[in-house]
């Protein structure tokens, strides 16, 4: 190899980014030993190797072993123990500790580690005192903290909280007998069925939020049905598994003679596939369910799942539901060219004659075709409507039919209590040519908040649109659309 080649290689190893990219691709087997050797053999490799070697820790013992033993007692004391020695950490020992502690980015601490991995509590107490004295976090660049502790004092993790943190996960073993009157509970990351067993002890629970849940819907229903006062349930079923023999015992533990049933539910928020959401519906028999929020995810070739799921909701709870939010998300590998009718998203809700608040959000790679007739159908189906928000996110390059602004007159005719309206409309206003501003409307309408999405009217069109809107909806506030350019300010009529 020539001298020039050697020089190029040597220069490459002086570039920190190149060195780090090489080191992060080391094989996982034996990686720690390799990094340790790299840190010893070369000054160019030392800092990057140490950063990677110490970036992730599964215990505190390696850091604590950098410090001298501060207690000769065979018994380890705790942070709360009065026997903690008053001796503090020397400056040189603190500097050595921070030389490595500043490299830690992720810390996973479990109190059930092997005894050889346990930290010395007396040493840890001295560290806490020293960090408090200098006003610095123990791990100043920590970004992710995962803490599992099965003792009554769960505050030790607070000593590792620093401004650099971006993710904190704290697992706590709580004795439910000490908190029998809890009314609101939030659980995240439920992966195993036994994680839900403690729910049976919360007899007075009213509000339950389950984040991402992998347990089958039948397991969730089985345990939730043991809470007679549960009135609000929120769950993300996107990762829910189908039932199997693994869950059979858990499904039967809390199930009553007639199967699991939620009898007092009033508010439901759920995300997932149509089948998992429908399975949850089957376990709800509450006559007082008045609000439901659904985030339905369907695949490209599932043309009926979302409609069937919403129709199931409407048929089961037509007498009680008055607030509904439905978000349709269709996943596809390609962009379809044929437009889907808006009616297939809205029509399943037409059974809810008492609907007062409705939100329809459609995310579909295919264009959505919304006609004037769809606007009239919604107005006629929901005479008690107070608030309506309709949005359809279109992929770039796709266009679908939208209603004319004049179609909104149907809401003035059929929805006397409507005060907030957000709908997409098309750009052209040719239909206003046939409008006679001398015609009378049945009565003054109280619509106040209005947003026309997907349009930016030019000056002359803005003048015509605003005159029409002010005639149909006498109290409407057009200033938000004027300020954002939906309506052209110079086209505002004199009385605006």
Low-confidence stretches: 71-86, 113-117, 245-257
**Biggest sheet, strands in spatial order?**
5-6-7-8-9-10-12-14-15-16
Tell me about the biggest sheet?
10 strands, parallel
Q: Got a strand count?
A: 16
Judged by helices, strands and strand pairing, the structural class is alpha/beta
Percent of residues in helical segments?
25-40%
- For the CA atoms, what is the radius of gyration? 31 Å
Instruction: Give the DSSP E fraction (strand runs of 2 or more residues).
Output: 15-25%
Mean pLDDT: 79
Number of helices: 16
Distance between the termini: 82 Å
Outline, from the CA principal axes? elongated
Descriptive notes:
The chain is an alpha/beta fold and 496 residues long. It has helices at residues 3-12, 16-23, 31-41, 43-53, 61-64, 91-101, 121-134, 217-224, 248-253, 274-282, 305-316, 343-346, 372-381, 409-414, 459-472, 479-483, and strands spanning 56-57, 106-110, 144-149, 167-172, 184-187, 207-212, 232-236, 267-272, 291-299, 323-331, 340-341, 357-363, 368-369, 387-393, 420-424, 449-453. Helices cover 29% and strands 17% of the residues. The strands form 3 sheets. It has a 10-stranded parallel beta sheet, with helices on one face. It has a 4-stranded parallel beta sheet with strand order 1-2-3-4, with no helix packed on it. The protein starts with a helix and ends in a 13-residue tail after the last helix.
